[in-house]
Amino acid sequence: MDVLGVDWSPDGCRLASCSIDNTVRIWSGESWTSEIVLAKHSSMVKGVAWDLLGKFLVSQADDSAIIWRASDWGVEATIRDVFDPSTEAFFRRCGWSPDGSWLTLTAAFKNGEHRAVAYERGSWKPESTSRGHGNTVLACAWNPCILQTRKEKETNTKHMLWALGCGEPKVSVWSTSKEPALVLISEMFGPNKEILDLCWCPDGLHLLACSKDGTVGCIRFSTDELGSPISNQEYQMHIRQLHGAVLGAATVAAQIPECPADLAPPPKDCLLYTSPSPRDS
After folding, report:
1. How confident is the model over 222-234, as pLDDT tens digits?
2. Are 193 and 212 in contact (CB under 8 A)?
3. What is the pLDDT of residues 24-51, one digit of tens each?
4. Reduced to 3 states, what is the DSSP secondary structure of residue 235?
5. CA 86 vs CA 4, 63, 132, 136: distances in Å
6. How far apart are the first and last CA of the chain?
7. Degrees (nearest 5) of the Cα angle 80, 143, 10?
8. d(C-alpha 121, C-alpha 54), whole Å
């Protein structure tokens, strides 16, 4: 069956995939055999995402999202009644915040508005709604860094960012510290070309977007625009305060550059859009 989405567990030991046969499969990263098949969806499953601790896996279909417990693969929560099952798009790119406290689901629709909705971990209640989209929200990607502006450092506060792409050539970036959208970019791709997926680079300053027109764009931000990532020590302390745990060596190692090329900025001829910033003037 056609696979519509995949995601690695934080420790790199398991791969989750979702398919048009209404199922989610968990694969061993060592033997490449299917460990379990999760079959509680009633329609095609179009997106999967692990939380940063590997405790939960979310799968999103046309009419529902299921949060699965990785400990026994039981259902932790099911979310319904906020989605638009009429859309024909094949993707639902859901995502977790970098501290695991928020889960964002795409393709929501209410009161005539296309939305993405962020839910609070544990209670699974709506925490924030991203409105104002002209078409179905297809993709969500959280910035992997927890960020601080200069002003936030003075008050010891922080913020997180997530990017959204929809069935039109627009990318928006949202912040946990303010509304509405922090950034809206509408000229990256050709007209009527939907955004199919989004991904942040580990530095939290480069955002990749791919479109139905067969191209990939890279948006470059500055720390003046988004803020600076907090240190790894501060990040671990924040995670410990939230979850009583420190991320494992495998997760931390994934943030370390593997070769000198990883430290180099992307080639300028690959940048389809560069946000204005003082350092570029």
Report:
1. 999 999 999 999 9
2. yes
3. 999 999 999 999 999 999 999 999 999 9
4. helix
5. 18, 9, 19, 10
6. 50
7. 75
8. 13
